[in-house]
Amino acid sequence: MSDVAERVKKIVVEHLGVEEEKVTENASFIDDLGADSLDTVELVMAFEEEFGIEIPDDAAENIQTFGDAVKFISEAA
Amino acid sequence: MFDLTGKTALVTGASGGIGGAIAKALYEAGATVGLSGTRVEPLEALAAELGERAHVLPCNLGDAEAVEALPKAAIAAMGGLDILVNNAGITRDQLFMRMSDEDWASVIDVNLTATMRLCRGVMRPMMKARWGRIINISSIVGATGNPGQVNYAAAKAGMVGMTKSIAYEVASRGITANCVAPGFIATAMTDKLNDEQKAKINAQIPAARMGSPEEIAAAVLYLASPEAGYVTGSTLHVNGGMAML
Asked: What is the ipTM of this complex?
C-alpha cells in the first residue's frame, strides 16, 4: 500500500473509530464506515491538514470512498 | 464561576454600549478578547481600558470580503477562536409602506448575512477544537415584531432560526449556538429620549425600567461558559418581563 494510502487509512481509523480491515478500496465512508455528513467534512479537513493541500467543496463531494480519497490526494499532493 | 481563562473571544459591535459591556465581561472572566467594529477610536479606547489580552480588529460588516477575513484575523491575533459573539447591528427604521429595498437589504446584510458569514468562518476552528460557543444577539422585536422595524425584526427573527439550525448541526462536536434577545437596554441611543418618552417605555416593562448593557453581558457570559455546555439552540430573553417567551 502506498504511503498516501497508509496515512489516509490512519486518519479514517482514528476519526471514525473503525477497524483497519474495514477500510478497503471501495469502503464508503457513510454507507460502510458509519460516518455522518459532518464526519465527511471533518475527514476532508483532516486530509487537508495532513497533506498540506486544499480540497475544494465540489471535489470533496466526490470523495465518498477510501479509494476516492487516496486517488484525489495522490493526484493533488 | 464562569472562568474563561485561556479562551479566545471575538465580539462584533464592541464599540457600542452592549458590545463593550460584553467584551468587558468576557475579559474579566479571563478570556482574550478581539474587539471588532467600524469605529476604530472607541475600540482602541476600550482595548486600552481592558489591558493586554484585548485586540482591536476593525471590520465593516457591510463588506463581504472584510467579514470573511475577520475570523482569520482574529485567530492570527489571538491564537484561536473559541467564542463568537455576533452583537453588531444597524437599524434603518421606516414604515413598511415606505421601506426601500436599500433599507431592507442593508439591515439584512449587516445583521443577518454578516452573522451567517462569521458563524461559517468559525466552524472549522471550533470543529477542530471540539469546543465552541456562538452567541448571536437577537432582539425582543424578532419575537414580537415592532412597527417601523420590518427589516430589523426580520433579520433578528432570521437569526434565531439560523442559530437553531447551526446548533443542530454541530451539537455533537461540543459547539453550542444560542441567541440572547435583549429588550429595552439603556445605551447612548436611549439616553437621547426625553423623560416622557422614557416613562412611556418603562410603563410597558414589568420591571419598570430599562435593562443595562451589563445585564445583557451577564447572559452572554453564561452562554459562553463551560457550564452552559448543555444549552444549545435556545434564545435567552433578557427584557425585564416585557415579553415572557
From this structure: 0.80
